[in-house]
Amino acid sequence: MNLDQFIENFADLFDETDPDTIQASTRFKELEEWSSLLALSVIAMIDEEYDVEFRGDDIRGSNTVEDLYKIVETRVEELD
Predict the structure, then answer these.
(1) 3, 1, 21: which is closest to 77 by C-alpha?
(2) Tell me: the pLDDT tens digits for 8-18?
């Protein structure tokens, strides 16, 4: 698991946002396309790709894409 792959997976969830504009420091809640439906898509993507339980509280407590990644990374390490 690496940050670049996580960003790519995250960016793939967006239909109208240019994937090249999404970086580790992107404040994802400020993206015009961000919605509660996309939040659910992020949770589903993390479950599918990383086999990690992720909750709405995790999203609410995060500001950047890297914040999300760090939570997932910590939980993946706990599983190992």
Answers:
(1) 1
(2) 999 999 999 99
